[in-house]
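I hope you will forgive my troubling you with a question about protein structure. The matter concerns a single protein, recorded as an amino acid sequence and a row of backbone structure tokens. Please examine both parts with care and let me know of anything in them that strikes you as inconsistent. Here, with my thanks, is the record as I have it:
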Amino acid sequence: MPTYAVTGATGRLGRLVIEQLLDSGVPAAEIAAIVRSPEKAAALAARGVEIRTANYDDPSTLPGVRRLLLISGDAPGQRVAQHTAVIDAAKLAGVERLVYTSILKADTTANPLAPEHKATEEVLAASGLTYTVLRNGWYTENYTDQLPQYLGSGTILGASGGSKISAATRADYAGAAVAALTREQDGNAVYELGGAAFTFDELAEAVTEVTGTTVVHQDMSAAELASALENVGLDAGTAGFVAALDQSIADGELATDSDDLSRLLGRPSTPLRDAIRAARG
């Protein structure tokens, strides 16, 4: 039976976790990829990883492995019920440690993404399972994926008020998850994870330096940002949600001075300019 299992294993984070487990020397026979669509896991299967079909709504097929990484679901409004089902199944299966990917400052932030994470953490704490909570900050890819827009318009729109974001790459967060899964540790643990902090002005400077194309940051209020996003085609609900996320940045809720990420990785997080270079190819 595999030692480690990863839910959402064909997702952008889950796939990186499994690849890094393999690259760290964990035998493929000790890894189970928990997926909803086995056909999407062909590359993992080719490396010898065991593919198990399951989903968050039907956890009965989860294996009774020693350590389980529960990557938070992608269905807003359904996450708490889905996560609870997995937690209950893990407890019944005798999982020794459950690692959960939460959000930075989940228990105190007003970030609109946080309530389901906070509720899941409460379920986990009440479960009796030994657990590790990885409170992941923003992905650097939230910004590097927008490079074509930045370069095309020459502008990064934001409503951050000059506040910093402690973002890190998915690969960095995957590395932290691998460390949490594989290291020997007594008791429960909660880690606040984020990389070297930067402002949107600093993001614009880094994009300009790396690409050679001048990009500037245009700061505005959350209401103005929502209106600007609607003007470029977003519906009102999505525009308002994105603006609310930037308001969380302005309120300092997506920055941390914790060094938990670098300690788990055993190295500094990926520098912003390196991430931009990688995104440029």
Summary: The longest helix spans residues 79-93. The beta strands are 4-7, 31-35, 50-53, 67-70, 97-103, 131-136, 155-158, 189-193, 216-219. The mean pLDDT is 95. DSSP finds twelve helices and nine strands in the chain.
